[in-house]
Design brief:
With about 375 residues, the protein is of the alpha+beta class. The chain has 9 helices and 7 strands. The chain has helices at about 5-50, 65-115, 125-175, 185-210, 225-240, 260-275, 310-315, 325-330, 335-345, and strands spanning about 220-225, 245-250, 255-260, 285-290, 295-300, 350-355, 360-370. The longest helix is centred in the N-terminal third of the chain and has 52 residues, at about 65-115. The two termini are about 55 Å apart. The relative contact order is 0.07. Bound molecules: adenosine-5'-diphosphate. Adenosine-5'-diphosphate (ADP) binds near residues 273 and 332.
Length: about 375
């Protein structure tokens, strides 16, 4: 694909300026030709009156004076025209540097983007074209980031699928070859691995929906303390099984503007993680308070905690602090990425703070109060 030829734009700018200069000169010439002799005669007549007749007779200009006047006006017009052409050329060169070059850079860069090469940027320029160049660079950067995320996602998904698929295939081949006897052990492994695959696919579908704002979100005024009490009740059995105290801490009466189902999912993910990663004998506490127009929910645990680097990455897709431990407890590495997408889809924000490794984590979600 050939880009547009911008040397033509330069010539067009020059032609337009010359045209303006020529039209200006023609208008001035016409005006001078029509109005100047009469104005000159009137002026000379006035002076003649003052000087007692002089070179005028009966109000008519002497032919010699008229010819001299015509020559003078003609010379002045030609000099003016030359000056106008010079100015037109200089202005055209200036405009061409200010417009034609940046426009040509933009056209080349957008042709590259259209071919799927998002790395190119256009050099900065001044004025409105500079604004356009800046917007273009921002758009190219956003497209580049999206493309990078898409590539990363495909790589991550392929990597995540490989292990359970290899494991299922290995088992099926072993069964076929008679290496394993069909029986409860084989069915359990196959069941676990296919469940892991199904879980991963469900998580990916949910993340995709939340990221593409394709979720049905129905925001309503919800009773905050009731939400936390329900979430605690849903996890009570699991907490008891893991010998972890799951308690309501300071829970102040506050309404929360959120989607009932999705906020339930957010709390389930955060409490589920706290119960998974906190060792037996630990404590998980839920809290709720209002700060200004925000309702702030906290899920605190006294588990392994996070370093600042880990805390900065836990909401990334497929990020796990300890991969083998997360996989052992059935983690897909997508839980917090989904949680963040759900929170943001409801207009909230989420963050985590940890005083350091082994000193617990504090996940904080804030929603507008209803
Ligand atoms: P996973 O499916 O692995 O749990 P998540 O996205 O839910 O994935 O969490 C990402 C990682 O963040 C986990 O693998 C774990 O290492 C860390 N993490 C999450 N919650 C906690 C917590 N309450 N305490 C310590 N680490 C946590």
């Amino acid at each position: 694909m050939r880009g547009p030829d911008f040397s033509r734009l330069r010539w067009r700018l020059l032609a337009a300026n010359l045209l303006v200069a020529a039209a200006g000169a023609a208008a001035v010439a016409a005006g001078v030709w029509l109005a100047a002799p009469r104005a000159f005669e009137d002026a000379m007549g006035g002076m003649g009156g003052m000087m007692g007749g002089g070179m005028m007779g009966g109000g008519m200009m002497d032919p010699l004076v008229r010819a001299a006047f015509g020559d003078a006006v003609g010379t002045a017009l030609i000099l003016g025209l030359i000056a106008a052409v010079a100015v037109a050329v200089v202005v055209a060169a200036f405009l061409s540097a200010r417009i034609a070059r940046p426009v040509s850079d933009l056209a080349e860069a957008s042709a590259r983007v259209a071919r799927g090469d998002y790395a190119g940027r256009v050099p900065p320029a001044g004025g409105e074209i500079g604004e356009l160049a800046r917007s273009f660079n921002e758009m190219a950067a956003a497209l580049e980031a999206t493309e990078q995320r898409r590539r990363d996602l495909i790589g991550d998904v392929a990597h995540e699928l490989r292990t359970p698929i290899a494991s299922v295939r290995g088992y099926v081949e072993g069964l076929e070859a008679g290496v394993f006897a069909p029986g409860p052990d084989a069915w359990r492994v196959l069941d676990e691995q296919t469940a892991r695959l199904a879980h991963l696919v469900d998580d990916l579908a949910l993340l995709w929906q939340a990221d593409s704002r394709d979720l049905r979100i129905q925001l309503e005024a919800l009773d905050g303390p009731a939400l936390l009490a329900d979430a605690r009740d849903r996890h009570r059995t699991l907490a008891e099984a893991r010998s972890i105290a799951l308690v309501l801490g300071e829970v102040l009466p506050t309404t929360v503007r959120a989607d009932r189902v999705r906020i339930g999912q957010v709390l389930d993910n955060l409490i589920g993680n706290a119960l998974r990663y906190t060792p037996a004998g630990g404590r998980v506490e839920l809290g709720l308070r209002a700060v200004g127009t925000e309702a702030i929910i906290e899920v605190r645990d006294d588990g392994p905690g996070l370093t600042p680097e880990q805390a900065a990455r836990v909401f990334d897709r497929f990020y796990r602090v300890d991969s083998s431990r997360s996989r052992d407890v059935g983690g897909s590495g997508l839980g917090l990425a989904i949680t963040r997408s759900l929170v943001e889809a409801m207009g909230g924000t989420i963050g985590v703070a940890s005083p350091g490794p082994s000193r617990g984590s504090r996940f904080r979600v804030s929603f507008p109060r209803a």
